[in-house]
């Protein structure tokens, strides 16, 4: 309904007509509906040349948006962030931000300009109606929708419509390139398949780096352990440490239920397991010495140390990887090898990285080994 139609209508008569269709709200308000002020046509309504120019301007905004989106992608590669170079971060952020801003602003300004200059400028009043109208109301809604399409020129002005669609389609592309680069370039599982542990590496206290003698580990104790000799000034020290951290515990040797093939992986009741939870990688830091359970504080996965850290509760899908240990000539605890499987969260690809010659599978008591 246009302003003129609305102004012409007698409020009560109009509403009473609509009661049958369920689209009217009857009010006891004694004031007469003043209607809308008379419609003032815009320059673009009167002059086809100006209308054409406005159309080109809208196209220009959408084109600018496309240029901005493409520029953001190009800038992302042309100004890469290099490690320890704050200047490169500034340049990358500056040009990436400029491109993304142009991409979004172009769409925004184009849409506003289109609405203000080319879409119908007449005010309309819409009566409130019941949630589901009658067939007549629904038919009217379709009619209004078509009218809106006709007045906005969405179907008719193919240049604007198509450029808007193209701008909207291009705008998310920079995000695709940025998120793609978050993933490691190499095989993601390969990055966690190997740690600094190797045959003969002594087990050392975290964070002091003091090597641990088997005699120092009393029954019931639990140590946080890193490989001996880690260079804490190395640029990848924290990455390497995060992969290699281990929990070392000693329990009465007779309490260990070791499976065939893993009997030689412990030393006199001393066992070592990766500290990285096999659920989503939190540090498993809580040891209950009475129950011999290891608990992950994040989602309460519980691992049974007497049974090769098998999962007995929680969302973790597989036991904590065990580090095979032994004792060297001087009585220090040493690793027999690296872990025989990738540490950390379970991925379907990780099976390809399990060392099948050395790895001995362990099943949980009430959890299947799913990965
Ligand atoms: S990360 Fe350990 S239970 Fe979720």
In short:
The protein is α+β, with helices and mostly antiparallel strands.
Bound molecules: FE2/S2 (inorganic) cluster
Major sheet details: 4 strands, antiparallel
Q: Indicate the percent of residues in helices.
A: 25-40%
Strand and helix order: HHHHHHHHHEEHEEEEEEEE
List unreliable stretches of 5+ residues: 1-12, 364-371
Q: Give the percentage of residues in beta strands.
A: 5-15%
Give the integer mean of the pLDDT values. 85
- How many discrete domains? 2
Strand order of the largest sheet: 1-2-3-4
Q: How far apart are the first and last residues' alpha carbons, in Å?
A: 64 Å
Radius of gyration: 35 Å
The oligomeric status of these chains comes to single chain
Structural class: alpha+beta
Give a description of the structure.
Belongs to the Rieske iron-sulfur protein family. It is a multi-pass membrane protein. This is Cytochrome bc1 complex Rieske iron-sulfur subunit. Residues 25-50 are annotated as: Disordered. Its main location: membrane. The chain has 371 residues and is an alpha+beta fold. The protein has 2 domains: 3-180, no CATH class; 190-353, Rieske Iron-sulfur Protein (3-layer Sandwich), CATH 2.102.10. 36% of the residues lie in helices and 10% in strands. It is built from 10 helices and 10 strands. The chain has helices at residues 3-8, 11-19, 43-46, 48-78, 86-117, 135-152, 158-170, 173-180, 190-193, 237-244, and strands at 203-205, 222-227, 246-250, 270-274, 286-288, 293-295, 302-304, 310-313, 325-327, 333-335. Strands 1-2-3-4 form a 4-stranded antiparallel beta sheet. A 4-stranded antiparallel beta sheet has the order 5-6-7-8, with no helix packed on it. A two-stranded antiparallel sheet has the order 9-10. A hairpin with a 5-residue loop joins strand 9 and strand 10. It is elongated, with a radius of gyration of 35 Å. Residues 1-12 and 364-371 have low confidence and may be disordered. Bound molecules: FE2/S2 (inorganic) cluster (FES). The site of FE2/S2 (inorganic) cluster (FES) has 12 residues, from loops.
């Amino acid at each position: 309904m246009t302003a003129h139609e609305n102004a012409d209508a007698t409020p009560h008569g109009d509403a009473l007509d609509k009661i049958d269709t369920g689209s009217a709200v009857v009010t006891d308000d004694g004031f007469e509906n003043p209607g809308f002020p008379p419609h003032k046509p815009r320059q673009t309504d009167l002059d086809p040349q100006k209308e054409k120019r406005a159309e080109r301007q809208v196209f220009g905004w959408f084109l600018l948006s496309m240029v901005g989106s493409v520029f953001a992608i190009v800038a992302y590669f042309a100004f890469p962030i290099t490690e320890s170079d704050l200047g490169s971060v500034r340049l990358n952020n500056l040009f990436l931000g400029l491109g993304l801003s142009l991409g979004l602003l172009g769409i925004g300004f184009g849409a506003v300009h289109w609405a203000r200059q080319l879409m119908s400028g007449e005010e309309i009043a819409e009566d409130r109606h019941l949630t589901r109208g009658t067939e007549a109301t629904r038919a009217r809604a379709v009619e209004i929708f078509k009218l809106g399409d006709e007045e906005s020129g969405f179907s008719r002005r193919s240049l604007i419509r198509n450029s808007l669609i193209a701008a909207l389609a291009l705008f998310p592309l920079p995000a695709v390139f940025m998120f793609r680069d978050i993933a490691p370039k190499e095989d993601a599982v390969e990055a966690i398949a190997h740690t600094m542990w190797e045959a003969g590496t002594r087990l050392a206290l975290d964070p002091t780096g003091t090597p641990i003698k088997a005699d120092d580990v009393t029954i019931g104790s639990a140590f946080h352990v890193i490989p001996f000799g880690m260079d804490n000034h190395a640029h990848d020290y924290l990455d390497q440490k995060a992969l290699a951290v281990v929990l070392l515990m000693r329990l009465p040797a007779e309490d260990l239920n070791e499976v065939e093939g893993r009997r030689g992986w412990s030393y006199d009741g001393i066992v070592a397991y990766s500290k990285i939870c096999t659920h989503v990688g939190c540090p498993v830091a809580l040891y209950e010495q009475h129950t011999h359970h290891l608990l992950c504080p994040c989602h309460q996965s519980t691992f049974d140390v007497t049974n090769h850290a098998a999962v007995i509760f929680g969302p973790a899908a597989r036991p904590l990887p065990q580090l095979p240990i032994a004792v060297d000539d001087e009585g220090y605890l040493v690793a027999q090898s690296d872990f025989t499987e990738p540490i950390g969260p379970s991925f379907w690809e990780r099976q390809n990285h399990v060392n099948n010659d050395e790895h001995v599978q362990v099943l949980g008591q009430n959890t299947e080994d799913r990965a």
